[in-house]
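Let us work through a complete example step by step.
Step 1: write down the sequence.
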Amino acid sequence: MKIGVIGIIIEKDRSVAEKVNEILSQNGDIICGRMGVPDNERSVFVISVIVRATNERISALTGKLGRLENVKVKSAVSQAE
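Step 2: predict the structure and record it as tokens.
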């Protein structure tokens, strides 16, 4: 198991946030913490998620999120097992 941080940025259309939340809920068993910061003035919404899982599971989660329109995803995962 590794620990990592996933950064999610939703731009322009906030309606995709519902799908983002659905995907995160489906993976709730690997989520240790989550923080969301809206910037309504610029229509940008940022979510940071701390996860503990295998590389494969983290990659699957970021892949699902990254395929959503108007969503950008980056992750950083620890090297230690």
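Step 3: interpret the result. Strands lie at 2-11, 31-39, 44-53, 71-77.
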